[in-house]
Amino acid sequence: METRRFNKPSFSRLVGCSWLAGICGLAGLALPARAQYDPDWARNFRVGILAGFNIKADIKVKTGAFDIAGRKAGVYDDGYVHDDPVNTVDDFTSNWGREVGSIYNESAQTLTLHRTTSFTATEVVSGKQDDSFPVGFDMEYGGYPWRWDRMRLGFNLGFGFLPLNFSQKVSMSGNIDGVADAFSTDQETGEIPPFFPGIGHHGLPGGNGWHIHSDIDSSTPFSEGDATALGTETLDVTLFAFRVGPSLFFDLSDRFGLAIGAGPAFGFVTGDYKFDETITREDDRTIRSHGRFGVSDFLIGGYVNATLTYHATLNGDFYIGAQYMPLGSANFGKGGRTAKLDLSGAILLSAGINWPF
Fold first, then answer.
1. Nearest-CA neighbor of 291 among 310, 272, 313?
2. Burial of residue 242 (number of CB atoms within 10 Å: 0-12, 13-18, 19+)
3. Other residues' Cβ atoms within 10 Å of the Cβ of residue 93
4. What are phi and psi of 255, to 5 degrees?
């Protein structure tokens, strides 16, 4: 029977659907209250959708050595050896397996498995970069204690939440280094068994199959050239933006209002740099290296914004807004992987519901 998989809705989609429902509800209230508008309001609060534009990222991988990441203990390029929780006598285990590249030495009674520990990139080529369309959340509180006819003077305190995701394809060439670990297959009976499991053997814990020693008998380093790597580097962060400053509001008519403001802005960026790479050895065997590291930075800048409101009902407005918020750049890096998040020309557009009171 076919099983259907339902995708989990994204944050952007949930935000969009929620605000669409709210706007539709306010539009319904506007029909019986078209002529209602209270000009004596002195404060306002608004929430809405936030979209970011002209936000860029420069993701780079430098030449040099990179440790293989994301591999569990006991896992090799060509097999695995794990302790057996059932068989505890003399470190024997049935929880082992072997693939192409593993070497069984019948006379020495050893099984040798190879573990690549690092990839040294001698050449790096950056490919296509994919940028997601950032959609988030906007919120603002305003107070206007001074009023002259149709003009009001006050201040605004705003907050923006904006997830950002940038991905960069990379291809690399270089060489690999690693260790070859030998495990004893001696059954300690004084006799060499008549056969040994071949390529493709996958044992399980507590199994009745062939047992080997789980302790490493010897380790030998190895190096290999002509290796290549293809991967995706991802900067997955969230921008928390705060702004505060004076604001002028103009009652253009009983239906429309315009607010303009400017002031200092502050940003906090936090998230992860992620990487997922597939390394291909000279004999076409592959090794996966994947992981992440945390990034964060605090930014200082400013903003200039303009907001147009439409008085839909008593104490209920629609609004659309635009703000230019240059916050500079945030730089992240670790172990030859770097990312520069450029917010020096950030433009943020917003739309939602405003409540004057």
1. 272
2. middle
3. 24
4. -105, -35
| Angle (nearest 5°) at CA 114 between 109 and 120 | 155
Cα atoms in the Cβ-side hemisphere of radius 13 Å centred on 220 = 7
The token pair at 127 is: 């490919």
Q: Is the pLDDT of residue 2 over 90?
A: no
Question: For the segment 265-283, what is each residue's pLDDT rounded down to a tens digit?
Answer: 999 999 999 999 999 998 8
Which CATH number does 11-66+123-177+225-356 carry? 2.40.160.20
User: Residue 188: left (phi > 0), alpha (psi -120 to 50), or beta?
Assistant: left
- Taking only the tens place, the pLDDT of each residue in 162-200 is 999 999 999 999 999 999 999 999 876 545 556 789 999
Distance CA 110, CA 127 (A): 44
Distance CA 301, CA 326 (A): 6
Q: Where are the domains of the chain?
A: 11-66+123-177+225-356
